[in-house]
Design a protein that fits this description.
About 50% of the residues lie in helices and about 10% in strands. It has about 130 residues and is mainly α.
Amino acid sequence: MQEQITFNDLPMMVSQVLSKMERLERVIETIRERIDGNSTSSAEHIPMTIDEACDFLKMKKSTMYYHVERGNITVTKRGKNFIFFKDELVHWLEGGRKNQESSMNTDEENDMRLASFRRKPKGFYPRR
């Protein structure tokens, strides 16, 4: 059975609701900290050989070596072998994304394209 709440009980009830809300906020904050702290969790920090990394990225070995030489991809070298970590490869892939949403409307995009073309100045062609 539910108790009848009177107007005199209202401050006490509001106080209880606020304390429960504060506890919920603390729990949510600890969950967020765990999620943010585990973004590089050991489950995703898996060492891979160059062949495994190429298979994972669906990339040719020569292209992988190209990116390693340029320093684009983070790699560890143990002896003659390169060691890649899965989470670092995923981070590298995500860093190469282009913004899909264009903030310009079609008229602005057309104006930008037209401005990029080089035009010959007037008087360039000989008059007949």
